[in-house]
Task: inverse folding
């Protein structure tokens, strides 16, 4: 593991963009990147953004006012000849300076307060937009590495960059207003001095940008390293991995790996700090020299009567704040550019995903699907996962009739889960068609079929919700009465377990939260079944729903399924349990993605083909699946 590299994420392709970005390139791209931030502001926090901009203009006006107030003050001071008795005449001008300074601080504080109102709103907006897309995107996109990578990038960096970009865009506009006001005020008394102010700030700005650039490039270089550390440290503190780590005494080995990685990361960070310190030093020396030149120019201007002493002193006050703002602007541009790239990436991902989802919906006409269905038929269905070469299903013809339990059996990888997912409306077939009676489902959105189906997936989710909600989310649109929830729990034989929890059905099923509880593997499986029973859909697609159940519960669940079938529901049951399969009305055998046998247990046993061989193998096994339950 130590030597293995994780896949380098695609977003590292931005490295070169950022590393090689000159100021001119940034200046060219910035309007486009900040445009994205404005789009977010428009739809979330327009009022606060306008308040910030208004306050920033006010702050610019205060800089000019400061110059005037400081000049008045220094003029009065010079006029007083620094005689103590005359100083009283200086007091009003000093009060003026104090008032402008106070107002300036107040406006600064208000600006920060308004800016801080924006970030959380924007982040929430971006996050909800992303999650809205990830939960609605067609499932096949999750099988496309390129899309998945873009999604991780948008989630990991895009969402958190959104508030940063908005904040930095506002910070930049504020800094530019201050710089313009300061340089304008200085230019009013001496244009040459204004040019000098700008030039003398360059070394500091250069050092700030280079330092940020260094940190960024180093962070990118160590991304893979840090991801490996996260993966490992997550496992070292993970509840599920904890028993295995202890039982197999993996502690020292795993800690050794983490130490190796963190040492490399630390070395890189120390090197960056060293180079940053050097750059800061060079910048400060050059900046100090430039400042000396500036002061010298001021002295010369005063000496040659090109500038009054009062104006020169006032200019000094304003120059300080102008230079500070210029340095801030340089840093802000850097951060804005970097995060702007992530945000642009986020928007690109969102619009591509929206287009893909729209294409999927557009292909389909909104023809209403009859509620009930006598036969769901698959006709010549083939399917290949995105990015795979070999098809997982080949030319499958199959009918699922109302009131029938069909067991789907076959070796590992024969295509059972894939077929179940197609029947559940999660994928469209690559070729062939699905018919809901005489409605071709290819003409409908996939969601039309999902509405009529319930799926218990092989790796069903253990929702960190209360026991009650774990069942009720089976159909969120229905009002979850106690009666309905408990009935579903009883059908899945999980009611006694849930009732005996500390807070009964209100117990949170996650040990990651205080007072939370956990269930055994089989109990979680019963809960997943309860959710399916609660959903009460026309067609139940169950992918190995009893793999973790004890034989008595398995038998009970099968009786429930039979009762559902008697009420006109259809059941597609993916199973490795020959006992369950034998009890189904019909058995379908898949092999290498092809349907090779189909019929009731007795007929298939008589045929002596693949199914009979599987039953024979199970009979010879010690997994307890030798006994074949009574057939319907
Ligand atoms: N998301 C995926 N992307 C690419 N190939 C996949 C994907 N899921 C499954 N496959 C491939 O499709 C084939 C059928 O897989 P499927 O999961 O349908 O088999 P299965 O019969 O349910 O197996 P098992 O009994 O082990 O659950 C396998 O070759 C598998 O490698």
Result:
């Amino acid at each position: 593991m130590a030597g293995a590299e994780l896949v380098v994420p695609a977003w590292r392709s931005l490295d070169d963009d950022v590393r090689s970005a000159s100021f001119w390139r940034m200046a060219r791209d910035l309007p486009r990147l900040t445009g994205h931030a404005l789009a977010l502001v428009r739809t979330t926090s327009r009022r606060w953004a306008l308040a910030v901009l208004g306050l920033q203009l006010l702050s610019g006006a205060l800089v000019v006012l400061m110059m005037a107030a400081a000049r008045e003050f220094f003029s009065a001071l010079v006029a007083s000849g620094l005689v103590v008795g005359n100083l009283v005449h200086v007091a009003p001008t000093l009060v003026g300076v104090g008032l402008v300074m106070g107002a300036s601080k107040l406006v600064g504080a208000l600006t920060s307060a308004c800016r801080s109102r924006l970030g959380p709103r924007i982040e929430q907006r971006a996050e909800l937009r992303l999650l809205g897309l990830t939960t609605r995107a067609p499932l096949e996109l999750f099988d496309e590495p390129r899309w998945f990578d873009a999604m991780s990038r948008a989630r990991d960096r895009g969402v958190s960059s959104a508030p940063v970009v908005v904040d930095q865009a506002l910070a930049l506009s504020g800094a530019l207003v201050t710089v313009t006001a300061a340089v304008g005020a200085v230019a009013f008394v001496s244009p040459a001095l204004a040019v000098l102010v700008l030039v003398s700030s360059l070394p500091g700005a250069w050092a700030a940008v280079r330092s940020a650039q260094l940190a960024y490039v180093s962070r990118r270089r160590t991304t893979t390293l840090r991801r490996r550390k996260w993966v490992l440290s997550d496992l070292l503190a993970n509840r599920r991995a904890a028993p295995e780590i202890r039982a197999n005494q993996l502690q020292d080995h795993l800690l050794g790996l983490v130490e190796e990685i963190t040492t490399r990361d630390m070395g890189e960070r120390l090197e960056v700090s060293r180079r940053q310190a050097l750059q800061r030093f060079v910048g400060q020396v050059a900046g100090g020299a430039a400042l000396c030149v500036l002061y010298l120019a001021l002295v010369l201007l005063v000496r040659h009567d090109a500038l009054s002493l009062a104006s020169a002193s006032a200019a000094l006050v304003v120059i300080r704040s102008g230079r500070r703002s210029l340095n801030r602007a340089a840093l802000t541009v850097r951060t804005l550019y970097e995060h702007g790239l992530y945000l642009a990436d986020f928007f690109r991902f969102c619009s591509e995903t929206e287009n893909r989802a729209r294409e999927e919906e557009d292909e389909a006409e909104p023809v209403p699907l009859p509620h009930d269905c006598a036969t769901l038929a698959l006709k010549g269905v083939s399917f290949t996962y995105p990015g795979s070469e070999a098809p997982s299903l080949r030319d499958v013809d199959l009918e699922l009739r109302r009131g029938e339990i069909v067991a789907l059996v076959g070796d590992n990888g024969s295509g059972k889960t894939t077929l179940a997912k197609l029947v559940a409306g999660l994928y469209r077939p690559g070729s062939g068609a699905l018919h809901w009676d005489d409605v071709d489902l290819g003409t409908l959105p996939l969601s039309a079929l999902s509405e009529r189906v319930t799926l218990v997936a092989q790796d069903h989710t253990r929702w960190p919700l209360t026991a009650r909600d774990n069942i009720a989310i089976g159909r969120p649109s229905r009002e979850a009465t106690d009666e309905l929830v408990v009935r579903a729990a009883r059908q899945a034989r999980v009611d006694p377990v849930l009732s005996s929890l500390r807070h009964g059905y209100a117990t949170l099923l996650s040990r990651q939260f205080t007072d939370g509880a956990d269930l055994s593997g089989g109990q979680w499986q019963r809960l997943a079944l309860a959710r399916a029973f609660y959903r009460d859909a026309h067609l139940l697609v169950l992918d190995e729903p009893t793999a973790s159940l004890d034989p008595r519960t398995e038998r009970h669940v099968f009786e429930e399924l039979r009762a559902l079938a008697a009420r006109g529901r259809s059941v597609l049951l993916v199973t490795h349990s020959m006992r369950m399969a034998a009890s189904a009305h019909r058995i379908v055998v898949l092999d290498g993605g092809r349907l090779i046998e189909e019929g009731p247990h007795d007929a298939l046993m008589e045929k002596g083909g693949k199914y009979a061989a599987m039953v024979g193998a199970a009979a010879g096994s010690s997994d307890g699946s030798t006994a074949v339950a009574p057939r319907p």
Observations:
- DSSP finds 20 helices and ten strands in the chain.
- The longest helix spans residues 309-362.
- The beta strands are 375-383, 393-401, 405-410, 431-436, 439-440, 453-456, 539-543, 570-574, 586-591, 594-599.
